Amino acid sequence: MPRRLLVYLFTAWASVMFGIMALTLPAAADPVFPRGLRIGLEPAGDLRLSTRFPGFEDSERNVAVIMLDLPATAFHELENAAFSDTQRDLQEVKRESFPFGSGIGFLISGTAQKNGSTVHRWSLLAQAIGSAVQNLTMLINVEVPDSALSVYSEAAIRKMLASATFRPAPVQEQLSLLPFKLGDLAGFEVKQVLPTGSVVLADQAADNSGPQPFMIVSIERGGPAAADRATFARDLLSTAPVRDLTLQSGEAMRISGLPGYEIRAQGKDPTGESVTVVQWLRFSPGAFLRVIGVSPTNKWDESFGRFRTLRDGVATQ
Description:
By secondary structure, this protein is α+β, with helices and mostly antiparallel strands. It folds into two domains: 3-166, 3-Layer(aba) Sandwich (Protein Transport Mog1p, Chain A), CATH 3.40.1000; 178-316, Mog1/PsbP, alpha/beta/alpha sandwich (Protein Transport Mog1p, Chain A). It has six helices and 18 strands. The protein has helices at 3-13, 75-82, 154-162, 171-177, 229-237, 300-312; strands at residues 39-40, 48-49, 55-58, 63-70, 91-100, 103-114, 117-127, 137-145, 165-166, 180-181, 188-193, 199-203, 214-221, 243-255, 258-268, 274-284, 287-296, 315-316. The strands form four sheets. Strands 2-3-4-8-7-6-5 form a seven-stranded antiparallel β-sheet. A seven-stranded antiparallel β-sheet has the order 11-12-13-17-16-15-14, sandwiched between helices. A two-stranded antiparallel ribbon has the order 1-9. Strand 16 and strand 17 form a beta hairpin. It is elongated and about 65 Å long.
């Protein structure tokens, strides 16, 4: 099974701490959106927003509703897994088309054994198509122990899943979940906060008449030994969203008082236009900040100063 799929599925069923603050639920019959997600629903029974994972839980009855807001590219991989014959832990499997508030998806249901008891599972997989919400794959996993079926019957779960709905990206909520804060945006605006903990920013003044400058900011775990930073930075640059990269320069430097490394390069955007790229890495114990700036080469002189201003305003939490 591909590693990326394992990550998705593990995340969906694991009980991991996301540090999401509990929110007050609105009146019944209103969709509730976990903080930062584009997906909401009307929770059944005594479900409340979880402080441990994105979704809802009834901790007394061990009921969990785990919601994943994934990129559109995740859909086909998850769809293939849902219709494969490798789900050996799921019994009495049923697969069906399932309409819900914002479209139609696939519902996979069945039972499994967990700690010697029977649990009932439902997974709703769907993709946002033809709506104001773009680049979204939804995966909602529900787990109900046999002992909780009197409150969370199949009918109640299906009604809850049918209420699932989408909303445009809640940018400020998503930004609050990132392990860093942005200061001076230097004329850029947030376009997308990715599940990986990265944020994509684009030129606020873009008129869509041609390629525009954009930036990607992320914090990643680990990092190289001091002697290996140059090689590490070059290898990392190869993952930038630019093709035909040619390195122009690379040098160690201090960035906001911490050791860093800068690389500049030339390349091509998806349309074949010439772009200039800068990548900054700022190292700290156990992690590093990565800032990428990409600009049409003919706009490089005006873009570079703005890239640097935004970089210097990133504060780690």
